[in-house]
Amino acid sequence: MEKTHPILELAKNRGFLWPAYELYGQVAGFYDYGPHGAALKRRIEDAFRRLYLAEGYLEVENPIVAPEEVFIASGHAGHFTDPMAECPKCGTAYRLDHLLKENPEAARAQKCPQCKGSLTETRPFNLMMATHIGPSKRPGYLRPETAQGIYITFKRLYRLGREKLPLGAFQLGTSFRNEISPRQGLLRLREFHMAEAEVFVHPDEKEEHPRFAEVEGVPLRLVDAQDREKTMTSAEAVSTRTLLHQTLAYHMARVQQLLLHLGIPQERLRFRQHRKDELAHYALDCWDAEVQTKAYGWVEVVGIADRGDYDLTRHSKQSGEPAGVFIPYPEPQTRKVRTIRVDKKAIGQQLGSRAAEAIRALSALPPEKLRGPTIQVQAGGQTCTIDPKHITIEEKEQKVTGETITPHVIEPSYGLDRILYSLLELNHREEQVEEEPRAVIGLPPHMAPVQAAVFPLLGNHPGLAARARELHRTLRQAGLRAEYDDSGAIGRRYRRQDEIGTPYCITIDHQSLEDGTATIRERDSMKQERTPTREIPGYIQQRTAPPPF
RNA sequence: GCGCCGAUGGUCUAGUGGUAUGACUUGGGCUUCCCAAGCCCAAAGUCCGGGUUCAAUUCCCGGUCGGCGCACCA
Predict the structure, then answer these.
(1) A272 Cβ within 7 A of any nucleic strand B atom
(2) pLDDT tens, A216-258?
(3) Strand B: which of residues 280-339 in chain A lie with Cβ below 7 A?
(4) Type and span of the H or E element at A464
(5) Which domains does chain A have, with CATH numbers?
(6) Interface predicted TM-score of the whole assembly (ipTM), two decimals
(7) pLDDT tens for each residue of A437-447
(8) CA atoms within 13 A on the CB side of A353
(9) Which of residues 113-132 of A touch strand B (CB under 7 A)?
């Protein structure tokens, strides 16, 4: 592992990214994307968007600021208030609530259990960025993930999707975590970019995915929770129960497809299952797509989790709104249904103010408890004895047209900054060409920030320059990102473009003036092809168009 | 947050108690008929605050930022 990869220097010099707020001494955990970085990020986002639009999912954008209730429901707020203290002597950090349970004496004495040093004073551990909303200062937070907005609006999305499962929604956006110590450049930021898809599925329909056939032969490199590595097709992974169900396997295969499409090399990609101790308590299963970087080793870039019904249920409890959706049966069914009728008047006269509670308790009792000679329920803190004659059990035929279920959520969650870093680092290469060094970012042509550059062979030749500018303008008008460069020697200009990954460089030479052709030099082979100038915009467009999913 | 190390033009770097070296890059010009050639000119720097001192980029203290280790990463 290298300390810092040369790509970071190149990225800084060539306008991919800069430490943010340099003018004021930088702020850790924040980065600027320069023009090429912003363009590359945009291409990653576009690819994500194309993939999930092709799945038929709905793109939304929710606010970044949310009131506290959202995070009480999600569970984030609880962690925000975690009290922390450290031992200055040995550097260990403790969560006081944990320490109180495990070692109450040490916690009360403020002593470090490891080295007996004195713990620092307790302070809340801020993971979320806090803020206040409006003049009333309603407590709020900047979201630590984009997903909550989708859970909260699930009912509206479900209606909009014509009340059908599975339902997919996705969102790209900025999230915030108040990291204690941001490190490793783009890998752990305080403000970062995510792309998340939330796929709501019927819990009974996860086993089979309607489009599984499209991915069943896709090989996946899997490292399971016991650290066993095996490469198998997604079909094998499901049949061996390595992966929980087809839906999870399907989405992992799609994630892999997208990452390869972006330019992550296959041999540096794997999926690793969360171990029991790192699996969030609500997740049924979670696999991270990891990319093997040169500078930092294996880095998580996408998490694919089966979150069960946790999110919808939590928001339902917090808000008081039911979470379930009604799923009609193909055919209405008739069922024998037992209903309990309670003589409310009689009970009211018998129990007075405790009657309402007693009646609720009665309706909740299982049928067998309603049979005996006397029936007992708790109400108003006392045991009340009810005469069975006040209770009638009726058996009726009832038509049941469907059932209410709470959908489960399958969530692929992408860290865009990490993907961007991986793309730069892993596609970067340095080589020798005729004794001269050449640095190239070998991004796939459809990912390159700049698609083409136009040069006059001689910078100070007015005829060549005019032609080159004209072609440059035409390329831009065709919607391509194109650069113009007439400075210095031609070789230097090629090198400059190599460093930002421009796949095609077009040179206008003397022959261009005679027959209207120009040379197109391809980045990786450095080979040139002479092409009529009028065909060049189409040539570039065709070769830099992203392949469909 | 803790510990160790560091911070000099855009980048990399030399050096110094008396405001600073070189290279690359960049801009302008000459040259040049396809891969960082050459020549001329120009622009650009001591992280921030305090202290010691006649004088601090240099020494001391604090901070910020960065690298690494520990911790944290719900």
Answers:
(1) no
(2) 999 999 999 999 999 999 999 999 999 999 999 999 999 999 9
(3) 280-281
(4) helix A462-477
(5) 35-64+143-324+406-428 (3.30.930.10), 83-124 (no CATH), 331-403 (3.30.720), 437-544 (3.40.50.800)
(6) 0.86
(7) 889 999 999 99
(8) 3
(9) 120, 125, 127
